[in-house]
Write a structure and sequence with these properties.
The chain contains 7 helices and 6 strands, in the order E-E-E-H-H-H-E-H-E-H-H-H-E. It is an alpha/beta fold. The protein has a 6-stranded mixed sheet with strand order 3-2-1-4-5-6, sandwiched between helices. The longest helix is centred in the C-terminal third of the chain and has 17 residues. The protein is globular and about 45 Å long.
Length: 196
């Protein structure tokens, strides 16, 4: 009898950023959400998604475009942040499916932006810091960036680094790599979910 799939959402975001301090009145806002669905049981990536998000209180700087490849014109075609959160919950089962990101930045940014905008937090309580799991599985003293972790795992970096859709795809490969080594045992953080 086949095992039931164990599905995780692997999420990576890009946000407005600057080379130095943000301009007066501007705040860092999510502009891209990359999401790859992984079936840990089957050991495969089963979905690849991208949501562009239109910022309200900031614009895409030249520095940000250089880093992510995203332009103001491109993110202007995106959806408002609240709609992006609704899509995560409605179309990607974000409220019920556990999710992982590389580090805690993505989770913290969602928490901050939901609080600042009064938006319902789209995720459930089960979040895993894949960077921490990888660091422990490899017995490293320092937590590696995603690109370094791919090197250590002998995996290719597919697509463009610092593009949410591609980074989520690559982080998902690392999650599956850990699962194949029987090392995907994240201490799932029971995150309080305000704004529900």
């Amino acid at each position: 009898m086949e095992s039931a799939p164990e599905l995780w959402n692997v999420v990576d975001i890009e946000a407005t950023c600057w080379d130095g301090q943000p301009p007066p009145g501007a705040v860092s806002e999510i502009i891209e959400i990359g999401l790859t669905v992984v079936d840990v049981t089957a050991g495969e990536r089963v979905g690849r998604h991208r949501i562009l998000v239109r910022p309200r209180r900031s614009t895409v700087s030249d520095f940000c475009t250089g880093l992510t490849g995203l332009t103001q014109a491109e993110v202007d075609t995106g959806v408002p942040f609240a709609e992006a959160c609704r899509l995560l919950a409605a179309e990607h089962r974000a409220g019920s499916r556990p999710w992982a990101s590389w580090g805690d930045y993505d989770r913290n940014q969602f928490t901050r932006q939901c609080a600042a905008t009064g938006t319902r937090y789209p995720f459930g309580r089960r979040h895993a810091n894949a960077k921490l799991v990888f660091t422990e599985a490899y017995g490293l003293r320092k937590r590696p960036g995603m690109a370094r972790a791919l090197e250590l795992a002998g995996l290719p970096l597919e697509g463009r680094h610092h593009r949410g859709e591609d980074d989520a795809w690559n982080i998902a490969a690392l999650v599956l790599h850990l699962a194949a080594r029987d090392a995907w045992h994240p201490a799932v953080c029971e995150v309080p979910t305000p704004f529900r």
